[in-house]
């Protein structure tokens, strides 16, 4: 059972992307949480909703900036999208390739000269 009354919402200071949420065991543990370089922290009462949408709304309210989703594509050296994840390209690295923010690309798409394209098969 948690005795905490707050959760910590970590977001990227520059991009405002939601990074993670932490619900500690008690309020003393909340005070000991520290953001990583490039991050800021926002404390929200556990009495409020804290799903991702609610946390993004709180970030927007605090920063006056609507946070992007954080959806990124992992592009390998050949320019192929090999995975999709949530990340901040300015702060994160991925072992399979370059992180590129994009809402629509999927594995198998190509990223060439700064643009995504989807290969189509004709049957």
Could you please describe the fold and organization of this structure?
The protein has 2 helices and 8 strands. The protein is of the alpha+beta class and 123 residues long. The relative contact order is 0.17. The mean pLDDT is 94.
The class by helix and strand makeup works out as alpha+beta
Total domain modules: 2
Poorly predicted runs are: none
**Mind telling me the C-alpha Rg?**
18 Å
| Shape field | elongated
Mean pLDDT: 94
The strand count comes to 8
What is the CA-CA span between the terminal residues? 57 Å
Helical percentage = 10-25%
User: Would you list the SSEs in sequence order as H and E?
Assistant: EEHEHEEEEE
Strand content: 25-35%
Major sheet: size, sense and barrel closure?
3 strands, antiparallel
Strand order of the largest sheet: 2-1-3
Number of contiguous helices: 2
What secondary-structure arrangement, pairings included, does this model have?
Elements: E1 6-12, E2 18-22, H1 27-32, E3 39-45, H2 52-63, E4 71-75, E5 81-86, E6 98-101, E7 110-112, E8 115-117
Name the features.
123 residues, 2 domains, 3-stranded antiparallel β-sheet, elongated
Task: Quickly describe the structure.
By secondary structure, the chain is an alpha+beta fold. Helix content is 15%, strand content 33%. It contains two helices and eight strands; from the N terminus they run E-E-H-E-H-E-E-E-E-E.
